[in-house]
Design a protein that fits this description.
binds magnesium ion; globular; alpha/beta; TIM Barrel; about 425 residues; Enolase-like, domain 1; single chain; 13 helices; 14 strands; about 20% strand; three-stranded antiparallel sheet
Length: about 425
């Protein structure tokens, strides 16, 4: 079998997600946007697809304001790649893929990842690489008539999830203060989530006279305490906070949530500052998880593990460039006996969790916000990660990644 085409299908959609200056998602006024699907075609007719698989709509009555200094519309890597990178996909990537065997995923990944060196191919980001790698895995699954997690060596068909609450904001009744978080975390538990992860604030006075974006660590602590009191002692809680605290604040906050019984502490400092993480890990008992956004794929994860920098490793498809490098990271973690928690939701995360011998504790479901309803994207006929009443999400069982594509919607809105 040979690849005959790599193409992007762009279609109109609606987004009610806006981005703050460091890219965090918040609810925003609903607006028109463009979604991109990546398609790999072959000479035997079988195709593979990669498409965004999470979606939110505003709850009735919610009227979030535009974010000061932020960006309107969902400027995710997917949208950016579609806007400025469609030509790159056509001119630079397509000629490399056409003629290749679509089952030679390692070879294709190896070529593309090495193209990322230097600035000449800067449009080939890890999120774009992830779309291509995911489309190849989807193609393989559709050809074999098996879900991807079984091709990877299936281990389980459902995974426990946690409610991943969006980064804090200034919307009263949203996520503006500890009381908002406490009320929403309690609601998440009532919805059936067995665990909750908070993302606390970044200062909206971006570029102010303090450390850029630095919020109040005391407000973070008050928030974590309010949430613990609201959900009681038996719900597992995690914290992902402002990512650029100094050692003093990171320690102060970490010690506080350790005492509150939180089960992991995520990205409180610059992840390239490995010495600071080693220092923090030596001071705290609460498990330190990472790296999440640090570049370098499985290689960076290997160095964090071998260097004793983290207690729990972290990997996400968009962070490392797809399922192929995620699999390498899974095996790395198994070999070192270190737990691995998969970053962000979606099909790739579910299939990886479906094959892990040392399972991640939780699937990250969301992001969630009191103003938003987390639901099926209109370009899919079914949600990729519906949760049952016991807090489990089923690993998709359709062939490939499990996308049940709504072609009527896509064709009606195609650009
Ligand atoms: Mg995180």
């Amino acid at each position: 079998m040979k690849i005959t085409d790599l193409k992007t299908i762009r279609f109109k959609s609606q987004s009610c997600i806006q981005r703050d200056p460091i890219g965090h998602a918040h609810p925003g006024p609903a607006m028109d946007t463009v979604t991109t699907m990546y398609v790999i075609e072959t000479d035997e007719g079988v195709c593979g697809y990669s498409v965004p698989d999470s979606y939110n709509v505003l709850n009735p009555g919610a009227a979030p304001q535009a974010w000061a200094g932020g960006d309107s519309g969902d400027k995710t890597a997917n949208a950016v790649a579609a806007g400025s990178g469609a030509g790159f996909v056509e001119k630079r990537l397509k000629p490399i893929l056409v003629g290749e065997d679509p089952f030679s995923r390692e070879k294709i990944f190896n070529i593309l990842y090495k193209m990322q060196r230097g600035g000449a191919n800067s449009a080939l980001t890890d999120p774009l690489l992830a779309h291509i790698d995911k489309a190849l895995w989807d193609l393989y699954g559709r050809y074999a008539n098996l879900p991807v997690y079984k091709l990877l060596g299936g281990h389980r068909d459902k995974v426990l999830c946690y409610a991943s609450i969006q980064v804090g904001d200034h919307f009263k009744g949203g996520l503006s203060d500890p009381e908002d978080y406490a009320a929403f975390a309690k609601k998440c538990v009532e919805m059936g989530y067995p665990a909750v992860k908070l993302h606390t604030w970044a200062d909206e006075n971006w570029g102010g006279n303090n450390c850029i974006g630095k919020p109040s660590v005391d407000k973070d602590i008050a928030c974590c305490k309010a949430v613990r009191e609201a959900v009681g002692p038996n719900v597992e809680l995690m914290l992902d906070c402002f990512h650029y605290y100094d050692r003093y604040d990171a320690y102060k906050l970490g010690k506080a949530i350790e005492d509150l019984g939180y089960i992991w502490y995520e990205e409180p400092m610059e992840e390239y500052n490995v010495s600071s993480y080693k220092w923090l890990k030596s001071k705290l008992n609460i498990p330190i998880i990472g790296p999440e956004v640090a570049k370098g794929k499985n290689f960076t994860r290997a160095e964090w593990i071998a260097g004793g920098v983290c207690d729990i490793a972290r990997v996400g498809a968009g962070d490392v460039g797809g399922i192929t490098p995620m699999v390498k990271t899974v095996h790395l973690c198994e070999s070192f006996g270190i737990p691995l928690e998969v970053h962000s939701g979606g099909a790739a995360s579910l299939h990886i969790m479906g094959m892990m011998t040392v399972p991640g504790r939780y699937y990250e479901r969301g992001m969630l916000h009191p103003f938003l309803n987390y639901c099926c994207p209109p370009w899919l006929n079914r949600m990729i990660d519906p949760m049952d009443e016991h807090g489990f999400v089923q690993v998709p069982q359709l062939p490939g990644l499990g996308y049940d594509i709504n072609w009527d919607y896509i064709n009606e809105n195609r650009l």
